Amino acid sequence: MNTAETIYVECMKQFPAILSDSDYLDVELGGLFTALLQGDCLKRLSDIETDSISLILTSPPYADQRKMTYGGIRPDKYVEWFLPIAVELKRVLRQDGTFILNIKEKAVNGERHTYVIDLIKAMREKGWLWTEEYIWHKKNSHPGKWPNRFRDGWERLLQFNISKKFFMNQEAVMIPVGDWSRTRLAHLSEIDKRRDDSRVGSGFGKNISNWIGRDMVYPNNVLYLAPEAGNKKHSAAFPESLPDWFIRLFTNSNDVVLDPFVGSGTTSVAAKRLGRNSIGIDILAEYIDIARERLEING
Amino acid sequence: MNTAETIYVECMKQFPAILSDSDYLDVELGGLFTALLQGDCLKRLSDIETDSISLILTSPPYADQRKMTYGGIRPDKYVEWFLPIAVELKRVLRQDGTFILNIKEKAVNGERHTYVIDLIKAMREKGWLWTEEYIWHKKNSHPGKWPNRFRDGWERLLQFNISKKFFMNQEAVMIPVGDWSRTRLAHLSEIDKRRDDSRVGSGFGKNISNWIGRDMVYPNNVLYLAPEAGNKKHSAAFPESLPDWFIRLFTNSNDVVLDPFVGSGTTSVAAKRLGRNSIGIDILAEYIDIARERLEING
DNA sequence: GTTCCGCATGAATCGATAG
DNA sequence: ACTATCGATTCATGCGGAA
């Protein structure tokens, strides 16, 4: 048996159904795999082994949003729609694993709708622990002016766990001391990195790696970063630095990351770059194609 | 009757019970008043006229926090404790008024407690509209670390209203436009300084007068403010810029602002500076004394 | 090669209009 | 009365073309 076959067999043991029925599967030397599954989320989740995933990170379609692509879910039906998925996610997650849910309630009839807080309550009744709520403070938010509200500049990143003793590698997300570091260096987007690299003689930023190992501190529970702006090929729910941060925080190398609404594949790309196995699910074949392209470029 | 007596009588008409039983009362020429009432919140609220307050802004004792001073409210009893107060606040608020509640759930037994989201649900059942949730993103929040979580870098600023047609003066909180984008490649470090101040959408703490004559834009629903640096005389729940922002946004001159847990008087000081009437309530005589001192210094 | 400028476009929301 | 659709509003950002 040659090396490739050995790797394949090794993966098969862990995820037999997935690896025999993926719409995209890349296995690197060393056995690291990246899989994309096209189809209904609940159905494809049933193929995944119980107690096998270290981190679930996803941004499901928000209520009434993305109607064009996903059909849209009515706010009043949102909990009912998501709860069975949450139950299935709990099945596949390891006991020390973490589930990060990116979500925000919309304004309905002049009021903030309660489907998000209703979902928190409902998930707790299904045994999920609501351990933390991170905030994504968006550097630039959608414009708009209304008589009774301003633009939405933040989203929720709800953390759920099965056990109080979940895995957390806090050292992996430490940031350099100082305020400027939290607002800029901590969650650098690719563009920011380029911008900082091109800034010569401005005091800092020429080589960010110089800061590694210096006076580092732990971050807090606010992520301050810009949404990925108008990429014409794909529109992503969040920038790659977001899954990057949570993957470093909540997983080890060779762990498995799952995004059941993977969209254009941002989570998969981040996982691959960090040397984690990943599984991405999406109902739309077009998105699976886009995600595959991005993975191949970044392979 | 002299001028002072005329003013006094005028105020009496509006708030007879308060003005005859305040623990501190300052009436300026023009009739603007600042009152402090010491005593149990519910009891003192009953002295306030129905439909008389334009803005309620407060940071009640968080569950189990400030135990030394307030006795602490157990998380499980929080809704039960606050709901009668919320009902009374709804009585005193004008139909076009706004209630801003600064609150954050604490972590209990490794989980975020649900008393805040339970309170939102309970207040809606009492007729309050949950119209918006602003976030206070704390600038310069100190690093901190627990086994399962990072330091809290944000708090909720829940907005409740009685009517969908509440008063809102959006122009009063406009901030300078981020025209750094046009010149972002030149003079990078200076531009970055300006960028970080303007892009976060609050516009606090910097010399906005430099921007007079330039275009102003509307902010978003994230307030990016530093907590008040440790004052040895008093510890305030929030910096003065926080009530300042909401008072400008939700009131006109000569309106009445209420803080039923006024503590060291930050809300009262902000209201006074902006030419608004204010009523502050606190159960602790020591806090009333501190608030009085601050008001006299800033009078 | 740089710098500058114009322009399209986003997890949006409200109010009015139409069925 | 209740739902569906559409236009107006708003601004940070990347990209592409021009100087």
Write up this protein:
The structure is a homodimer of 299-residue chains. In chain A, 33% of the residues lie in helices and 22% in strands. Chain A is built from eleven helices and 13 strands. In chain A, strand 12 (256-259), helix 10 (266-273) and strand 13 (277-282) form a beta-alpha-beta unit. Residues 179-213 of chain A have low confidence and may be disordered. The structure holds a DNA duplex (19 and 19 nucleotides).
Q: How much helix, percentage-wise, in residues of chain A? A: 25-40%
Major interchain interface with per-chain residue totals: A-B, 47 and 50 residues
Termini Cα gap of chain A:
25 Å
Q: Which strands sit side by side, in order, in the main sheet of chain A?
A: 1-2-13-12-3-4-8-7-11
* SSE order of chain A: HHEEHEHHEEEHEEEHHEEHEHEH
Count, helices of chain A: 11
**Average pLDDT over all residues of chain A:** 84
Sheet with the most strands, sense and barrel status of chain A: 9 strands, mixed
What is the SS-derived class of chain A?
alpha/beta
Tally of DSSP β-strands of chain A: 13
Oligomer: homodimer
Please tell me how large the radius of gyration of chain A is: 19 Å
Low-confidence stretches of chain A: 179-213
Shape of chain A: globular
**Beta-strand content of chain A:** 15-25%
